[in-house]
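Exercise 7. Given the encoded structure of a 435-residue chain, write a plausible sequence.
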């Protein structure tokens, strides 16, 4: 039963809000020409597909996405991918940063982005607002979060995940009482004594079934449930960020509870975390599994042919639709849609994002006349520990080697971040190049 004054949760009184406006500097150059939620993942999806799919699978069918930087490709993906029938009244809509009579500034942070669009959220009869990040890999049933939110009579509920001591220093850490009510919130605690004070104690330690001797902490996942009137109250100021300002202030004024989540969750906001999370998907039983018929991940429905693989040695790989692979060796690699991999290539620990279109015969003849390699991985190329962005032209005999011990570097048509070589979107790498 819902608390006095609040209605039970229904598909029509819950609104999903996905934060898609971040500049994504830590994912550069993947975010050079696109916003962070539009970055491709797992060979055929975009990052934004994860929170949208979680909402749809949780029967949340009213979804706004707040956008700002490099948003054209994200807008195009949303419009091509998500359309509910007219009888469901569901929607996935973009709310881009805009100049209005009430203000002319861009979003200054997560809370400011919600504040600037609050009038749209309050126009309808939404009782609960679920606020989500656009750059995390996880599967969550928000109906369970909302159920606990009502049963605990919470004003705000924050999803939290147990993490180790080394992870805690880089996250927002919650301290809760026996009723899972949050009594303290510290953003990125570094002090050793403070970390000792914040670690999970019994009986909560037993409740989450942690049996190791390592210290554990509850970290905010950046997933929030607000009651309608409470969201309006906490945003009645000029603060800019939920984690730094809104949540710490709300703990002393409102009933703020933690929903403890113990499934797979990964923030993929850096090159290293993005790279590792993608390659982990190649394993037979990854921690995050796209092969889930009860909670599928939705995306743009492309009408592509099945992939062709000719006389190749392929081990632990994800291969998207519409690919052609000729007599090559591929290991622990993601091969995105419409990829063409020439003969005698060796690819290891690599992400190939694929192509947005198939080249026509006329386009390939023009490239030949200009001495430009086709949009493909050229014959005899050897690539290890790299991210090849979309529509890249790699000539024959190109060698990209492991740069694990190299510092960050920006070269001609490539970058090195966290020891990973990144070939930006639409780049041309001439035949015989060595990186």
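Solution.
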């Amino acid at each position: 039963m819902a608390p006095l004054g609040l209605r039970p949760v229904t598909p029509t009184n819950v609104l999903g809000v996905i934060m898609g406006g971040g500049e994504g500097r830590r994912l550069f150059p993947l975010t050079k020409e696109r916003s962070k939620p539009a970055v491709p993942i797992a060979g055929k999806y975009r990052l934004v597909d994860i929170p949208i799919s979680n909402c749809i699978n949780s029967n949340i069918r009213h979804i706004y996405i707040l956008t700002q930087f490099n948003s054209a490709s994200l807008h195009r993906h949303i419009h091509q991918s998500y359309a509910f029938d007219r009888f469901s009244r569901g929607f996935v809509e973009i709310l881009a940063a805009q100049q209005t009579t009430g203000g002319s500034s861009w979003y200054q942070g997560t809370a400011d982005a919600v504040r600037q669009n609050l009038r749209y959220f309050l126009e309808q009869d939404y009782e609960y607002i679920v606020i989500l990040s656009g750059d995390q890999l996880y599967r969550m049933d928000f109906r369970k979060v909302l159920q606990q939110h009502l049963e605990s009579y919470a004003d705000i509920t924050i999803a939290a995940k147990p993490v180790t001591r080394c992870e805690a220093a880089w996250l927002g850490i919650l301290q809760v009482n026996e009723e899972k009510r949050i009594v303290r919130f510290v953003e990125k605690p570094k002090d050793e004594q403070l970390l000792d004070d914040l670690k999970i104690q019994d009986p909560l330690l037993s409740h989450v079934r942690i049996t190791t001797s390592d210290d554990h902490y509850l970290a905010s996942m950046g997933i929030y449930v607000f009651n309608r009137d409470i969201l309006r109250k906490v945003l009645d100021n000029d603060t800019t960020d939920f984690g730094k300002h809104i949540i710490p202030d709300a703990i002393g004024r409102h009933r703020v509870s933690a929903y403890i989540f113990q499934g797979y969750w990964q923030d993929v906001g850096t090159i290293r975390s993005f790279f590792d999370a993608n390659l982990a998907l190649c394993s037979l039983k990854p921690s995050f599994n796209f092969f889930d018929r009860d909670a599928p991940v939705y995306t743009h429905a492309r009408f592509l042919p099945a992939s062709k693989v000719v006389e190749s040695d392929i081990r632990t790989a994800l291969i998207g639709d519409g690919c052609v692979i000729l007599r090559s060796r591929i290991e622990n690699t993601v091969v995105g849609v419409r990829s063409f991999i020439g003969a005698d290539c060796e690819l290891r620990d690599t992400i190939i994002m694929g192509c947005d279109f198939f080249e026509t015969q006329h386009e390939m003849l023009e490239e030949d006349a200009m001495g430009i390699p086709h949009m493909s991985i050229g014959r005899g190329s050897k690539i290890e520990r790299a991210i090849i962005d979309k529509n890249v032209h790699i000539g024959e005999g190109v060698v990209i080697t492991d740069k694990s011990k190299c510092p960050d570097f920006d070269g001609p048509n490539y970058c090195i971040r966290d020891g990973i070589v990144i070939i930006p979107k639409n780049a041309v790498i001439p035949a015989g190049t060595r990186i």
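Remark. Residues 178 and 204 are 7 Å apart (CA to CA). Students should compare their own answers with the one above.
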